Amino acid sequence: MILAKKVRLIPTPEQEQVLRNHAGAARFAYNYCKRMSDRYYKLFGKSVSQLALQKRFT
Q: Is residue 36 part of a domain?
């Protein structure tokens, strides 16, 4: 039974830049939603819904 498979990526410089851009965008989105969620909890004492975060972010 195969439990895991190891894969190594060897991107071209252009692909590496695209991967870095996507990682940066994902980090920004995560931090933004985390900050909004923390503020909402601090103000109202309850967590914000995922739908509300999605509406606020887009």
A: yes
Q: What is residue 18's DSSP assignment? A: H
User: For residue 48, what are the contacts with CB-CB under 8 A and spacing of at least 6?
Assistant: 36, 37, 40, 41
Confidence of residue 57 (pLDDT cuts 50, 70, 90): confident
Domain ranges, residue 44: 18-57
Q: What is the 3-state secondary structure (H, E, C) of 30-49?
A: HHHHHHHHHHHHHHHCCCCC
* CA dist., res. 22 & res. 40, Å (int): 27
Q: What is the pTM of this model?
A: 0.74
Number of domains in the chain: 1
pLDDT at 21: 98
Report if residue 51 sits inside a domain.
yes
Give the pLDDT confidence score for residue 38 in this predicted structure: 96
